[in-house]
Design brief:
The chain is an alpha+beta fold. Helices cover 25% and strands 31% of the residues. A hairpin with a 2-residue loop joins strand 6 and strand 7.
Length: 131
């Protein structure tokens, strides 16, 4: 039993990236899939695949690395935790590394990156930052 499944997902991705693994398997949920899709759209992972099994299913992420093997994902940080939720308005969305990284938010229109939130003028719960 996990107290925070999103933090568990981010830790699995972080550990797999540090070990230079090609793929990482994560227990599937709709929210985790939405976060993984944002990571794929922003270019941090190359492929997101949903796998059905006898239980809840799995998500297979194919991680990306640079041409010389450098990490694409250097840091994944959980911002809004189960004990202390962090909500931000559109003007308070952080610029991660002055725009080189992304923030992932849960909004009324789904899980979006900080760029899309600024375009659509939406705030929400700050899930994590990636760079």
């Amino acid at each position: 039993m996990w107290s925070d499944p999103i933090a568990d997902m981010l830790t699995r991705i972080r550990n797999a990236s540090r070990n230079r693994a090609a793929t990482v398997m994560i227990p599937r949920s709709g929210f985790k899939q939405a976060v993984c899709k944002v990571l794929q759209e922003e270019g941090y992972v190359s492929e997101v695949e949903s796998i059905d099994d006898a239980t809840q299913g799995q998500i297979r992420l194919k991680l990306k690395y640079g041409p010389r093997g450098e990490h694409v994902i250097n840091n994944l940080k959980r911002e809004s935790k189960s004990g202390c939720r962090k909500y931000v308005g559109v003007d308070e969305i952080p610029k991660v590394l002055n725009g080189l990284g992304i923030a992932i938010l849960s909004t009324s229109r789904g899980v979006l990156s900080d760029r899309r939130c600024r375009e659509e003028r939406l705030g929400g719960e700050l899930i994590c930052t990636v760079y």
